[in-house]
Amino acid sequence: MDRHSPEDVRSFFDGLAARWDQLPRPAPERLQVIVDWAALSSGETVLDVGTGTGILVPYLRRGVGPGGEVVGADISQRMLEQAEANHGEAATFVLADAQYLPFPAGRFDCVMCFSAFPHFDHQFRAIGEFARVLRPGGRVVIAHADSRSTINARHQGMGGPAAHHVLPPAPVLAGWLEACGLKASIARDDSELFVIVGRKAPWTRGGPGNGHVL
Description:
The longest helix has 15 residues, at 6-20. This protein is α/β, with parallel strands linked by helices. Helix 3 (57-64) links the parallel strand 1 (45-49) and strand 2. Helix content is 35%, strand content 22%. The protein starts with 5 loop residues before the first helix and ends in a 14-residue tail after the last strand. The protein has a 7-stranded mixed β-sheet with strand order 3-2-1-4-5-7-6, with helices on both faces.
């Protein structure tokens, strides 16, 4: 399958950025339900991968409170410019490819990937990066505000690079999370929401492979 290069994907979303916020948006209560699965706490750090124009940033900011940190990452510079204009006081925005995140290991308490996962060329590698930048006890949330079938049909109808961008079945994603060392659960996979959660084990001071899960 021709999924196109990261440069093609970047160009595609750069071209959509100016009108992205005028497209239909998920209901606020549906977005809040998705963020609730992240189980954010005051003072935590959260990475919003594929942040686009920052639709989830206000919800993530409320979740971590004034003492927390929200970082939005996206491959599209134009999307990030819109995100900065929309939510510059609530988050820091970084130009980044999800498959090669420019952050040290253990940097974040939570990685949120909302409405972006199908657009990654090497999806398993992206999950490996999510797991790498998580602290012990951290969470990954991969989510969409529609069913998998709706998402895939929508992308096919968009044309361009997105026409080849597929959201894998929930069990496949869960298996990839497990393979990257995260305990996975299918939180929602129905006609309204698609939410997969992966949790990184909190280890004793012996560390992974030497200690035991607390």
